[in-house]
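Recall from the previous chapter that SMILES is a line notation for molecules. Here it describes flavin mononucleotide.
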Amino acid sequence: MRSLYTICYVSKGAPELQEKDIEELFHYTSTANNKNAVSGILLYSLGNFFQVLEGNEKHLLQLYQKIKEDPRHLEIYEVYNKPTHRPVFENYKSTFDIVKNSKDLKKLIAYLNQDQSNSTNHKLKRLLRPFDMLDEL
Ligand SMILES: Cc1cc2nc3c(=O)[nH]c(=O)nc-3n(C[C@H](O)[C@H](O)[C@H](O)COP(=O)(O)O)c2cc1C
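With both inputs in hand, we obtain:
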């Protein structure tokens, strides 16, 4: 049986991070996650990261350990770290997604709106609300 797992956190980008560092991180993350069958999203807005990771439990826990030790962000606030029976993102495109602008975010929220019965889904929408109020990410 597949053991699917979800991790979600918000964090603060390191103050010295430049635009090109973010682009590099986005590129690395989507390539690595697509290679390793990790789904989810990574969003960066006004100095904060928001990330959801879904995939194999063992792989995700190892990855999350590395992410937590990464000096490119700090003050990691964990929202979820638990097994999941109903992945939210597995069917959202077929790739790990970088949410780069308000259009991407609106598409994501529309997707989450499709299934109101999934409680993870509902919580994610609430967490994304402050980001959605910004016109441009
Ligand atoms: C905010 C943030 C999110 C990250 N997300 C991922 C991710 O989803 N997948 C990934 O492979 N690396 C991610 N990384 C990069 C990892 O921290 C780490 O640099 C990368 O896995 C390479 O580790 P390694 O050189 O030990 O293999 C992220 C880093 C930051 C700062």
